[in-house]
Amino acid sequence: MELSKIGIVLLSGLVLGGLVTLDNPVVYAKQETGYGVQAGNINRARGSQLVKEGYVFRLDGDKHNSGLWSQPTGNNRSRLTGHKELRRIIKDRINFKIYRVWQYKNGLQYKIVSQSGKYQGWIDNAGIYNKYSLDKQLQPIISQEQKVVNSINAKYVGAAHQHYEKKDLLAYQDELTKTSEYAGRLSGDKRLVALKSIGQVRNYIKNRNSNSIPTLLWPV
Question: What percentage of the chain has pLDDT greater than the value 90?
């Protein structure tokens, strides 16, 4: 998983480090209670984007991955996958879908379900990744997207109504033109994934909302 995480350090800070204010409404407010230690909110906007991706997520083989849990946080949650079962899920590269996002003070939790329906539960944002984020053919796409998004985050996050400098906007558009040309040379699912991701970057340039960061760069 080194490849998918090195390039998204700034994106991690985007949500967890409080860099994004972006007109404020990153969290959509249905308050849920009963989870003990930490209160949080269901992030409906982020969840609705991720669920459209389908079964393209896999569990990370990192030793710190604690697997699936019955609840996102709190004293009453229980572990749903033992160590051996978790290792088997990772080894078998079982595909999952994210269909709910829980956002709280110290991070994000995702509620996921496997394609067969056998496995379901909550997992920490560090324990899951988009399988296409490791695809060698898509690395040029991901690299260009990171370049654009990280530049926006560094220069414009926290100033949602600030207009782009003309030279920056032209540079972003130029990067996406190159990326689109490369995507056009791909085929099959990879081409579709690349074009969808480029569309998400264009949307992020337009509204600078953390919920519209390209899915290839998430989870973070």
Answer: 53
> Which residues are within 8 A (CB) of 110 and not within 5 positions of it... i.e. 6 or more apart?
50, 98, 100, 101, 102, 122, 123, 124, 125, 128, 219
CB 66 within 8 A of CB 79: yes
Q: Which long-range contacts does 168-177 make (Cβ < 8 Å, 24+ apart)? A: 169/205, 172/148, 172/205, 175/144, 175/147, 175/148, 176/144, 176/148, 176/201, 176/202
Q: What does the pLDDT look like over 71-120, one tens digit per residue?
A: 988 788 899 999 999 999 999 999 999 999 988 876 789 999 999 999 99
Per the listing, tokens 């399988």 go with 131
Tell me the C-alpha distance between 111 and 70, whole Å: 9
Burial of 144 (0-12, 13-18, 19+ CB in 10 A): buried
CA distance 88 to 161: 48
pLDDT at 128 (0 to 100): 93
Q: Rounded to an integer, what distance in angstroms lies between the CA atom of residue 141 and that of residue 132?
A: 11
Cis? peptide before 219, omega within 30° of 0? yes
Cα 90 from Cα 220, distance rounded (Å): 18
